[in-house]
């Protein structure tokens, strides 16, 4: 139940909106003012200008779908104006050199120094390579990695610009095909269908916070009244959690998480095969699915490759090959 003030505001707004639909703009404005005045007297300092009323409209409950759609259009229009204005500012100053204050802490200062070093040591010395990359990209890998700041695939695997088309998310999860659109599925589609990458590499890691959140869900009562994007996302790894509980349920929490970190990588490999265009290329031998596990505690990297045998009768259609540890 909404508070009285919001219910009252909603009724006043609904009345004003209906009046506006049946009368000219000037009459609608007077009807809105009359409806508001009838509901409750206003003090001088409580009078609402049109701009102020729009702020109230953004926080009340709309009683019908048409009004809700109107509010959504207003939000989209405002958002469009906002980012268009920012883009115009960038264009206006793209040729200007803005002086940076001395002595004040600048969080981007180190990034600037690193960029200038990259430009001199990499870009300038390999200008032909970067000019070719400016025209097209033909990466060898599509990499799905975790967003964890300690697990940068570019650094730990020595990837250079043009080597890998990369997407990073919480717990390096690959949703199944039926999950629908996400930044991960869009990146996979572009890498596999447009760039024609020959390899997909899913990289997990030690002490993954996303996996810890996944394994903690079994101990927490689901609170449907509070929305958690992290909980919704890591729930995609539920099958890995259940497999871990079955195989390592007698171990302590840390050991279960370590087991699930690798279990979820294999789950993501199998989810990749739910995408028709990935399965097709794997079957024809033009796409390989690989896994990697980076342990930053002792700086080791374990890798393996998934074997898919769809025509096999009896036994599992899946196997692992070329497993090794780099240490």
Number of separate strands: 6
Portion of residues in helices?
Answer: 40-55%
Molecular shape:
globular
Helix count from the secondary structure assignment: 13
Strand content range: 5-15%
Biggest sheet: strand arrangement? 2-1-3-4-5-6
Gap from first CA to last CA: 61 Å
Question: Structural class, judged by helices and strands?
Answer: alpha/beta
Low-confidence segments, given as residue ranges, are 1-9, 23-60
Radius of gyration, CA atoms, in whole angstroms:
28 Å
For the largest beta-sheet, the strand count, sense and barrel status come to: 6 strands, mixed
Write the element-wise H/E pattern from the N-terminal end onward: HHHHHHEHEHEHHHHHEEE
Mean pLDDT: 81
Description:
The chain contains 13 helices and six strands. It is of the alpha/beta class. The protein has a six-stranded mixed beta sheet with strand order 2-1-3-4-5-6. The longest helix is centred in the N-terminal third of the chain and has 28 residues, at 65-92. The chain is globular, with a radius of gyration of 28 Å. The model is unreliable at 1-9 and 23-60 (pLDDT under 50).
